[in-house]
Design brief:
binds adenosine-2'-5'-diphosphate, D-Maltodextrin-Binding Protein, domain 2, 450 residues, hydrolase, 41% helix, five-stranded mixed beta sheet, globular, Fructose-1,6-Bisphosphatase, Chain A, domain 1, alpha+beta, metal ion binding, Inositol_monoP_metal-BS, 16 strands, 13 helices, seven-stranded mixed beta sheet, 3 domains, disordered N terminus, binds magnesium ion
Length: 450
């Protein structure tokens, strides 16, 4: 697993940096002019009239110190001015990329392309008889598709954002012990690379089996709270993938523990047009959620804005839940649905395809109540999906109504359970869930003692 990596250098282009610098200087001058003007008057009086008297000396000193205070306060003024004008400055986490589409446009584009390329691989493995399934130490399955997709996405992150940190679900330990499996993964990676040429300047390539293993191991970062950190689930819902159900490729960028970009590729969800399969959803904080077909030229595809169904009472809606009864408590979810007056049968879907579905308005509520209180949800299972729903007009919280806390490492240990719903019914749903959760699991544990 990789060690902590250096802080991210600015990723903006030199042109943007220069424009920012000029505008910033202008704003500083403006700030100085407006804020010190009233204080210059005493200095003039002082100079013209009685330069030697004690009174004017005091006046003079006061003017000078007020002026220096005002000059200092002109800097934050300029920062605020520029940030209101959507200009970016280096933050604690390194600067955001500005492209024609706004902040994080480059991150979103690279993430979309990387997820699309990974989907070429997962689709090939999905329809192949050989999946190379092995069971991990936590008894969950992993396949050629999980390893291969992780290698492809990490090669893209390494190429485009080499200083960013990465948290990924998989590592290469099983492959290093099993050369046959490793060769199968390499076959899948090299086939996917030949099947999806182009964009090498953004996505890079994987030159051999050794480099593939190195890429797979780039996801061992543990600090989710500091700087720029990508979180990837290369095949979310591996059980669904193996069963022929839904799965998702989920990639998110966290900056100082806040999800800023989320991309979900869902190869098995119905597409946007008749007969099409697969959707690619992406969200940037503050900019909404958009959807494109998962296949085809992403740069040419017109992003379609998507919003959740804005129902005003929960009983008008339906809810979705996972297929696996070991991953969420179907009985508790049914109780909550009953309490909300929901009469529709639950829609069961594997993976973050549930977040995608409700963000597309193909359902309203997502309930994920724990089967055991000791389970800690993983950040790669929720980072991308929660932003995609949040930016489509939804609210995501835990079963006690607390916002998801992505700052505490590779898991969401400060949260229990996950719920998502349209903003309009958030309070109603949160209350019903809280009532049932307290009854069933007990009161919310205090923070940091979970
Ligand atoms: N006991 C559990 N409770 C909640 N989620 C779980 C549990 N065990 C595994 N998972 C995770 O559920 C996710 C799939 O969600 P869903 O059931 O909604 O499709 C997987 O990422 C899986 O993680 P993992 O990949 O580590 O097994
Ligand atoms: Mg997962």
């Amino acid at each position: 697993m990789c060690a902590k990596r250096p802080r991210t250098p600015p990723t903006s282009t030199p042109i943007n940096t220069n424009i920012n610098a000029v505008l910033f200087s202008l704003a500083v001058c403006l700030g100085i002019l407006f804020t010190i003007a009233p204080y210059l008057a005493p200095c003039f009086v002082d100079f013209l009239l009685l330069p030697t008297t004690t009174t004017t000396l005091l006046l003079h000193r006061a003017s000078v110190s007020v002026c220096s205070y005002r000059v200092a306060s002109a800097i934050p003024f300029a920062r605020r001015f520029c940030s209101n004008s959507k200009l970016q400055f280096s933050s604690r986490a390194g600067s955001r990329t500005m492209a024609s589409g706004g902040a994080y446009a480059r991150e979103r584009r690279v993430a979309e392309l990387a997820v699309q390329r990974a989907a070429v691989l997962t689709r090939a493995v999905y329809s192949s008889r050989v999946k190379g399934t092995v069971t991990k130490s936590d008894a969950s399955p992993v396949t050629i598709a999980d390893f291969g997709a992780q290698a492809l996405v990490f090669s893209a992150l390494d190429k485009s954002f080499p200083s960013d940190n990465i948290i990924g679900e998989e590592d290469s330990a099983d492959l290093r012990e099993n050369n046959d499996l490793s060769s199968l993964v390499w076959d899948a990676v090299s086939t996917a690379l030949s099947a999806s040429p182009g964009h090498e300047s953004d996505l890079g390539s994987v030159t051999g089996q050794g480099q593939m293993l190195e890429f797979i191991d780039k996801g061992g970062h543990t600090d989710s709270a500091t700087g720029r950190v990508w979180a990837l689930d290369p095949v979310d819902g591996t059980k669904g993938f193996l069963r022929g159900g839904q799965y998702a490729i989920a990639l998110a960028l966290l900056v100082d523990g806040v999800v800023q970009v989320g991309v979900l590729g869902c190869p098995n969800l119905p597409g946007l047009n008749e007969g099409e399969e697969g959707v690619l959803l992406s969200a940037i904080r503050g900019q909404g959620t958009v959807v494109k077909p998962l296949s085809g030229d992403l740069d040419a595809a017109e992003p379609r804005k998507t919003t959740m169904n804005a129902i005003t009472v929960a009983s008008e809606g339906g809810f979705c839940e996972g297929v696996e009864s070991g991953h969420s408590a179907h009985d508790v979810q049914a109780r909550i649905a009953g309490k909300l007056g929901i009469t529709k049968a639950p829609v069961q879907l594997d993976s973050q395809a549930k977040y995608a579905s409700i963000a597309l308005g193909r359902g309203e509520i997502y309930l994920r109540l724990p089967t055991k209180m000791t389970y800690e949800e993983k950040i790669w299972d929720h980072a991308a999906g929660s932003l995609v729903v949040g930016e489509a007009g939804g609210v995501v919280a835990d079963m006690y109504g607390r916002p998801l806390d992505f700052t505490v490492g590779r898991t969401l240990r400060e949260n229990k359970g996950v719920i998502a719903m349209p903003r309009q019914i958030a309070e109603e749903v949160k209350k019903a869930v809280l009532d049932v959760a307290v009854e069933h699991y007990g009161p919310p544990p205090p923070k940091s003692s979970l």
